[in-house]
Each structure stands twice: as structure tokens, then as C-alpha cells.
């Protein structure tokens, strides 16, 4: 299973634009680490910081000149690395944006780690929305999500991000219920939650992507609407 980390979410919050993505990428701190440290190693943090920088430049070029006209070599040149280094991190130019597409989803899953056992899912997210802890998404991320609806290759990367999250959601729900991640019921519930998170992100991006004042309250509304629809099951 692909590693699914939550270390890069700060890189895509705020509404300052693509430049903020690189500046807020995971920091590289010097100092020894031990096997018991929860933090990633120095090498891992450097690798993830570079992946976010590549992703930011890829999105900038895709938005400026289109996906088709952008080459992997151009992305590498914008980052200041060789094309060979770029291809060591990503198999295709479209896959370069995966860290940015995954980050918001990873944050939502991270929030679920604090989900109290005596609180329903909808009530829990309603409480989160009321406390204002949901971050705003950078405009460049909203542009990217909208691009996934028209570019098949980017769409595949967006769906890959959610596919990568499915086992993590399944394990989380299984621990909560005492079931097994392999149980069909758990798989269906994980897929339903995953789909609700994706639909909420897409709805927000298409409805509010051009609104500079849209922030946490609008994100919360889209998320809660999606979760309410998911909780209805299939009333057909």
C-alpha cells in the first residue's frame, strides 16, 4: 500500500497563491532523530519538501499554458532540478500534482483520528465546523481540482489520491467498530465517506473557486451537505 502521510497539509492552506505553497512546505530541520521519533527523518522531509515544490510548479505551469503544452522538462527547469530527478519522484507530468491533491484529504483523515467514540460522524464534523478548525484552500488548489474535471490524466491522479486513502479509512472505521478492514460493510462505509469528501471538495472548488472571500464557512457547508447525503444511504 502506498504511504499516506499527513505531513504536508500546511503547504496548501491559506489563500496566498502558489508562492505560499513552496514557502510553507514541510520544514527541514537539522538534528539527530531516533527510531522512536514520530517525526520523519531529515531525508524524508527533504524529499517531501521537494515533491511539494515540484507539485507547485507543475500546477503553475498547467494553469498558465495548459497541461498538454507543459512538459516534464519544463517543470524540472522551473524547480531547478534535472528531468532525471523529476522522473525519480513522479512517473508522469500529471502525477507531479499528487502531493497537493492528497494533502487536504490527508488532513480530513487526520481529523478523524480524534473522533470520539461516543459521537456520530455527522455530529463530530458539525462540531469541527463550528470551531472553525477547517482551513481554507489556496486558490491554486481549487484551480487544480477544477482542472481534474476536464483533463482525464489529472482526473486519474485525483482519483488515485482518493483510492490511496481507502485502506486508511477502512482501518480507521474497523478500529472504531471492532470489525475488520476486509469486511464488506466496512469497505462500503469507507468508500461512502471517501466519496463524500471528494464530492465536497469538488463542489466547493466549482462553486467558490473564484470567490476570494470564500473560506472555512463555505467549506464547512459543502462538507456537511455531502456527509448528510452520505448518511441517507440509498433512498431510491
UniProtKB/TrEMBL annotation:
Region (Disordered): 23-42
Organism whose genome encodes this protein: Streptomyces pratensis (strain ATCC 33331 / IAF-45CD)
InterPro entries listed in its UniProt record: Homeodomain-like_sf, HTH-type_TetR-like_transc_reg, HTH_TetR, MftR_C
Gene3D superfamilies named in the record: Tetracycline Repressor, domain 2
GO molecular function per UniProt: DNA-binding transcription factor activity; transcription cis-regulatory region binding
Tree of life domain: Bacteria
Protein name: Regulatory protein TetR
Membrane-spanning ranges: none
Keyword list, A-Z: DNA-binding, Transcription, Transcription regulation
Keyword DNA-binding: yes
Lineage: Bacteria, Bacillati, Actinomycetota, Actinomycetes, Kitasatosporales
DNA-binding region as annotated in the record: 71-90
Domain HTH tetR-type: residue ranges: 48-108
Amino acid at each position: 500500500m502506498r504511504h499516506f502521510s499527513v505531513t504536508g497539509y500546511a503547504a496548501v492552506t491559506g489563500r496566498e497563491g502558489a508562492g505560499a505553497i513552496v514557502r510553507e512546505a514541510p520544514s527541514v530541520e537539522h538534528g539527530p532523530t531516533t527510531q522512536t521519533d514520530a517525526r520523519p527523518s531529515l531525508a524524508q522531509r527533504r524529499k517531501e519538501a521537494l515533491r511539494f515544490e515540484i507539485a507547485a510548479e507543475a500546477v503553475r505551469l498547467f494553469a498558465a499554458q495548459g497541461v498538454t503544452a507543459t512538459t516534464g522538462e519544463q517543470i524540472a527547469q522551473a524547480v531547478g532540478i534535472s528531468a532525471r530527478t523529476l522522473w525519480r519522484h513522479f512517473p508522469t507530468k500529471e502525477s507531479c500534482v499528487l502531493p497537493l491533491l492528497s494533502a487536504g484529504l490527508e488532513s480530513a483523515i487526520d481529523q478523524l483520528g480524534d473522533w470520539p467514540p461516543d459521537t456520530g460522524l455527522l455530529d463530530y464534523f458539525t462540531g469541527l465546523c463550528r470551531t472553525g478548525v477547517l482551513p481554507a484552500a489556496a486558490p491554486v488548489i481549487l484551480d487544480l481540482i477544477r482542472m481534474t474535471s476536464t483533463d482525464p490524466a489529472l482526473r486519474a491522479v485525483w482519483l488515485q489520491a482518493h483510492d490511496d486513502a481507502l485502506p486508511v479509512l477502512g482501518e480507521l472505521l474497523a478500529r472504531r467498530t471492532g470489525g475488520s478492514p476486509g469486511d464488506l460493510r466496512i469497505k462500503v462505509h469507507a468508500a461512502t465517506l471517501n466519496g463524500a469528501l471528494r464530492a465536497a471538495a469538488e463542489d466547493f472548488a466549482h462553486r467558490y473557486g473564484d470567490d476570494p472571500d470564500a473560506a472555512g464557512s463555505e467549506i464547512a457547508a459543502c462538507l456537511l451537505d455531502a456527509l448528510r447525503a452520505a448518511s441517507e444511504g440509498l433512498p431510491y
